[in-house]
Amino acid sequence: MAAYFIPSRIHPTAEQTDLQTATQPVVLGEANAGAAKTTTLALRIAESLARNVEPARILALAFTPEARDVLRQRLLDIGVPWDTVNQLDILTIEDLAMRTLEQLEGEPLKLTLQPRRLKTHVWRAIDAVAAQYAGRPGSRYAELDLRKSEIAVSGYLDTLLRLKARMALQGEHDDDPVEAAEVAGEPLTDYLVALAYETIRLDGAEQAQFRTRFDPTYDLARMLRREPGCAQGFPRYRVIVCDELHDMNEASFVIVEALIRATGAFFTGVGDKHQVIHDQLGASHDYLDFRFRHAFPALRSYPLTTTYRHGPHLTLAIDALMDNRGSSGVPDHTEIRQLHYDTAEECAQRVVEAIKAWKKDKHRLEQCAVLMRDRHQSIALENALIEAGIGYRVPVMKGYMQREEILFLRGVLAITLDDLRAVPSYEVRTAIVEALAAFAGMEAAAGFEKVKHDIAKEPSLLPGFFRGHLGGDALADADTAFADVMRYLAEVAPDSPAGEVLAEVCRRMDVAVVAKRVYVNPYAASVAARSIDGFVAMARKSGLGLAAFWKKINAAEVFASRKREKDFVHLDCVADVKGQEFGHVIMPYLEVNEFPNPLVPARTERNLFYVGVSRTRQRLTLLSPTEAERRSGFLRQMQIAAVAPKADQALRQLEDKVREERPVRLYLTARYEDREEVRQLGAQFDTVRKQWYIDAGLDTGPFQRWL
Ligand SMILES: Nc1ncnc2c1ncn2[C@@H]1O[C@H](COP(=O)(O)OP(=O)(O)OP(=O)(O)O)[C@@H](O)[C@H]1O
Does residue 582 contact residue 616 with C-beta atoms inside 8 Å? Predict the structure, then answer.
């Protein structure tokens, strides 16, 4: 079918146009990375606008705020004006759930985000399970393994999230928890704790007493399951689209399915099953593979196989990695550079060189992204960037100096030197006090909230508070590790070597163990412990005394947090840049035990690596150890050299094809006051792009001044 909407900038492929103009009520697009899923969804929205659907009756959904922003950008890219984009509802599923619950409950939703603040609820749940089941007849109950350690709490919270994401916490086996746990595939203890936790959270009432991340989605899904009539409260959308279906889980599916049925809207979803990286949240390719088809038997699937993000050299290497069969529509040679290093610092130096080479080739720095597997890797990278005077932005992941574990060590320095005042930002001073309290295990102390702000306002109170609280008379008796650290610091001279002092603090505190208590999740704790190691190593290497080191990091923070509109590179974790793209992608630390991370399932790691490399438009720089045995296996799997001849050939064919392409319409620069004149000459008005145009075959002579 001919499209009503013609985009600016791009020529859609036949596959894209088929999806843009599809007439079936429920449509899925199955694609490879960069194969224009989001762009095609934008085309689908624009097509609806061109067919007179009001913007306010269109809902565009994504799973993450980043993906939501990319969708907005793609609409602008294809020529939908800013005003129109602003009238559309472009939301994450969690945004939609929050908005719907707020309407139903009549008050704003508050979320408790840090896992450690949920710990007391988990402990109460454990006590409740012990009271209810211990000593109950039945061999399964005798095996209950109720522990309150940090690792156990973290395990319970992980299970809880998995159960909620999969909507596996209630069901037909409610009266027999043993069977219910078995069906859910979780240990009985975890299942019972999860049930008890939810009883506390909901406190017998419908309205939750507290909520954390994902609870809004889960609560709305629960409500829709129990009372499908609630769905009638959704706005009367006529068109719904959903991006990144590979992030879908059962709770989100319940919401989307209810939305489609209640509104009768036309639905289009797109996804790429190789981009499933959130298995923890119950994401699975099942939704793309069969759940939608099962719920909507008339569904029609459309493939999207051509990537427009990069040329054939990278496309074919990605095909080799993923065992895929995509092709490229970009007639450019996407460069893949490989560099090697021996140490973490050398790797960071290579990153700086790669950025400088990009700049020297006259490209913009903002088009360059350094994508890491994990945030602990950023210490060496940030230091190297600061040293080289290269501005950077850390959009999702905070810069290392503002991460809790490092704020704790900065707090230690501030106490020792009695110089919290040297930290210019009020927020950072507050965060330092919070981090100290968290690592000292006293963040829940009565009145702490007020004290925190008092100290941030009057920094000279800091040493007195932490020493006095656990010190003074109490200090002599206190046998906590933190009190021991306070005693040690009281003896330390300001010119003592910073590296040695911090190492001693970490040793006395046993920070790896403390990190487990603070972070609860073992994986997050291991990343934090590695960050701490990196920071201490950096202090050692600097050779500076405490006072000089303190000055250096505060100056570095001022450099790093300067607001920049241009001349900066992006520094982020791969998992946080899904949906985005960059001219130059640099991937450091591609080595055994870093990427793939051995704590994560192999398939998820490969998908994550694929997400990283597929963000590239023009140049990909891969950094791995000089020693071949230490290199990440993914590099070999890409078969970069082996696919090059085939890629050269594909590139030549593409160059020929592009020469033959002709636009369908020519858009004019005519303004409002020219409207009668151009209309009489035969021009037509595009109501979506709000521009005059002529069909390509028309004589352009009379229109020269508007072309
Ligand atoms: N027909 C086309 N011609 C030229 N460029 C296109 C075309 N369609 C899309 N593009 C461009 O291709 C790039 C990738 O598109 P898009 O972001 O929509 O892909 P995606 O499949 O959603 O990516 P991912 O899921 O990997 O984030 C964008 O820069 C987009 O502008």
Answer: yes
What mean pLDDT do residues 214-241 have?
93
686 ligand 1 Cβ < 6 A: no
Instruction: Take atom 4 of ligand 1 and give the residue whose Cα is closest.
Output: 10
Closest-CA residue, ligand 1 atom 16, reads 36
Q: Looking at residue 558, what is its pLDDT?
A: 86
Place of tokens 């009057």: 458
| CA 244 to ligand 1: nearest atom | 25
For residues 657-679, average pLDDT: 84
- Residues facing 685 on adjacent strands: 692
Give me the residue spans of the domains in the chain.
14-107+217-304, 134-208, 312-391+564-654, 400-560, 665-706
Report whether residue 312 contacts ligand 1, using a CB cutoff of 6 Å: no
Give DSSP secondary structure letters for 269-338: EEE-GGG---GGGT--THIIIIIHHHH-TT-EEEEE-EESSS-HHHHHHHHHHHT---EE---S--EEEE
The angle, 0 to 180 degrees and rounded to 10, between the axes of the packed helices 119-133 and 150-165 is 90
User: In the predicted model, is pLDDT for residue 519 greater than 80?
Assistant: no
Name residues whose C-beta falls within 8 Å of residue 52's C-beta, 6 or more positions apart in sequence: none
- More confident of the two residues 224 and 286: 224
Annotated binding-site members for ATP: 31-38
Give me the mean pLDDT over the 663-672 stretch.
86
Burial class (CB within 10 angstroms; exposed 0-12, middle 13-18, buried 19+) of 104: middle
- Whether 585 shows a pLDDT value over 80: the answer reads yes
Domain 312-391+564-654 sits in CATH at 3.40.50.300
3-state SS of the chain: helix, strand, coil percent to 5? 55, 10, 30
User: How far from 382 is each of 359, 406, 533, 599, 660, CA to CA, in Å?
Assistant: 18, 14, 15, 25, 46
Predicted local distance difference test score (pLDDT) of residue 396 = 65
Give the integer Cα–Cα distance in Å for 605 and 327. Answer: 23
Q: What are the contacts of 204-207 at 24+ separation with CB within 8 A?
A: 207/105
Supply the pLDDT for residue 477: 53
- Condensed to tens digits (0 to 9), the pLDDT of residues 85-129 reads 999 999 999 999 999 999 888 888 889 887 778 888 999 999 999
pLDDT the model gives residue 497: 96
What is this model's ipTM?
0.96
308 lines ligand 1 (CB under 6 A): yes
Greater pLDDT, 3 or 187: 3
**Cβ–ligand 1 contact at 34 (below 6 Å):** yes
Q: Do domains 14-107+217-304 and 312-391+564-654 have the same CATH topology?
A: yes
- CB environment 30-58: b (16+ within 10 A), e (fewer): bbbbbbbbbbbbbbbbbbbbbeebebebb
Global pTM reads 0.82
Provide the CATH topology of domain 14-107+217-304. Answer: Rossmann fold (3.40.50)
Using the structure block, give the residue that is written with the tokens 């119950």: 282
Q: Structure tokens of 429?
A: 């001073």
Which residue's alpha carbon is nearest to atom 25 within ligand 1?
Answer: 33
308 CA closest ligand 1 atom index: 12
Ligand 1 atom closest to 40 (CA) = 18
By percentage, how much of the chain surpasses pLDDT 70?
95
**614 CB within 6 A, ligand 1:** yes
